[in-house]
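pinned: reference chain
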Amino acid sequence: MSAELDIARQWVARARNDLLNADNNLASKNVPFDTVCFHCQQAAEKLLKAVLVARGFPPPRTHVLLVLSDSIASFLPSVESLRDDLVILTPYAVSARYPGEDCDMPTLDDAREARQCARNVLSWMGKEMPDVTL
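pinned: its structure tokens
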């Protein structure tokens, strides 16, 4: 196994932990919606960075998911199919986590939507790069 593939799989493993965190919180009695949304954004970010790493590109230091998808589009144009999901998830990286930022407190519907968006990113990656998502 190449070093890039090994590191990309580590990114995916951490993304799966974020998804597990989101799922566990969604199943709890008192759901921290902002935390669920944050972990869904983080999972998508880590998955996109895994794609870059697997292809030998260092991942940029950004939480803006469209920046990451733009970096991927040159070699995997199908990433454009995730555009709406990435737009939904991006604000949860920072603004949803801190009071006074320009983002309302997420609701249960927001958390469920964020989880579906993250699921879509994982599903896309499984189709495009199955060797990384094992």
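why pinned: Residues 74 and 80 are 10 Å apart (CA to CA). Residues 3-26 form the longest helix (24 residues).
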